[in-house]
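Bit of a strange request maybe. I'm writing a small parser for structure token strings and I need a real example to test against, not something I typed by hand. Could someone generate the tokens for this chain?
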Amino acid sequence: MTKVAEAAPHAGAGFHYRPEIDGLRAIAVLPVLLFHAGSTVFRGGFVGVDVFFAISGYLIAGLLLAELERGTFSIATFYERRARRILPALFVVMAACIPFAWAWLWPTQLDEFGKSLVTVAAFVSNVEFYREGGYFANDVALKPLLHTWSLAVEEQFYIVFPVVLWALWSWDRHRGSDRRWMLLALSALALASLGLAQWYVVHAPNAGFYLAPGRAWELLAGAIAALMPAPTRTSRSRWRHLPGLAGLSLIGASAIAFSDESPFPGLMALVPVGGALLVLRGGTADTLGGQLLSLRWVRGIGLISYSVYLWHQPLFALARAQSSAPPGAAEMLALCVLAVVAGALSWRFVERPFRMAGQPLLRRRRSVFLAAMAGMTLLGGTGMALHIAQGFPQRATPGGTMGSIEDRLALNFGLDASCDTPFTLSPLCATARRPDTLLWGDSFAMHIAVSLRAGPHPLALRQHTLSDCAPLQDIALTGRGRDYDPADAAQCIAFNRHVLAWLRSHQDVRTVVLASPFSMYRDIALGPDGSTQATTPEAVARALLRLVAAIRATGAHVVVIAPPPNNGTNIGQCLAATLRDGIAGSPCDFPRSSARRYPETLLRLLNGQVPVIRLDNMLCPGGICRTRVGDTIVYRDDRHISIEGSRWLGHRFDLADRVRAAAR
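Reply from user aminoacidic:
Good idea to test on real output. This should exercise your parser:
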């Protein structure tokens, strides 16, 4: 690594290598690594990216300012440095992912991987991942290039920042104000970005997480710290140790105390970013914090941190995609070690040769830019081919083509996909002109619709269902933090009101089947007046019993169907992998004793008041919960029954007749 690449601003215009900043890089990358590995301790390890942003803004601003003051500033030189720093290792990792993605990813996943190759090559992957869903959603663990969103944010920022800094520096020099206007302008931009980030947290959390406008303040904060005058203190000051140690404490506390439910990265991101700034400004080599960060092994991890960051997510994601069971703690620890080893090799044999002072590979700037364009074109073209071919569903496996296996994991909407809407009277969501049974609930009602039609005595059914909307009266259960969406909650309340009104106007309906896990929603309930309150099983039971009373007032009977048991893993992914790899038997089955079943507290509260049909009693004979029966895969994901599994359940247990019996 060149001294230019490692240099850090110190005391304004002067530069020298600060080993403690490499140590801070280690403090940034390790929590990210452990968070993605599933650590229960570092639940907020994603804040390491915020630390990286602050470091990057600090170093880049300092380098650019030094060049401006020396009269050597050049946009072309700046982008040459960025290309040498970012692209070689990135291209190697992207290329290495392709054969494994081809072998293990399902067509939909390979299609998305192809799009990510294109967008990573164009440094807009953050926009693509924002469009695909949340950073903390279950399926993101299978996206090999998810982590490149942060590189995209940085590069989008650095398209604009050098020009802005040059303009502000020129203005300051013209007015002789010694950086005052530069600092004021950058501070105003940072505050505007921070304000936008907080707005995003409330109104559009995924946009706030992924998109550059709400993240720019973190890089700007580092830049401002680099441009501020050096602090005045004596080397013997007893307080000199405090800023660095406080900064490390803030970073560590946020990595441990924050979680995927935290309203992040709005004002809460001030904690890790502020911690990073305290270390950058006050954790110098003459302080205890700086000395800890300068330890050889800490600094060594920091030196390879970029390559470690690049390798860790592909290793984790592809290992999860390959295996029929999620990697355990030992396997994830081994993958963490492998990520560090791969990062060290990548740093030594890929990063350094392109950045080494004196005799780097591709010594001419023109060669660097041509190679960058060639790599982006080749990798982006490969990704485009994967996308155009829709993930090549015709790839052969022992259990059939990849496409035919993935089709068996299709979303189970029940009678029709149109039945998952705020409210519909579509004829596709009814099996008779005058149905006598209403199926009401969320996706856990959808997945049993086929069961209620598949047995020897099918029900005349009307399906009214909406994803993430539990059948309750005048209350919507939701999550907290980024999961809390008042608009969705209000829509759910309106949906349930519409369904109840429909029921009151259809006296032919004699039985109402309610299905939802209820407990999948946590912490916040939205009332009809827009007020929020904490939820408990008792509060949920009361809301459910109010709805039951309203249903019974129409003359209809009520039956609740509990969701199937699950063990916290993606059972559908496991089942598909066994088919893909030709594995016989039922390796995805799990003990009933370890299953996450219907909330027992809620069952006790409903006991004797509402009949409940429990699917775990059907699926777990002899204490083992079955996930595959013969050639039938019962589950489609971690909690939902597949279409073929629902059909088997209806035939095997005559679920429709059980509903009739329970309603008597």
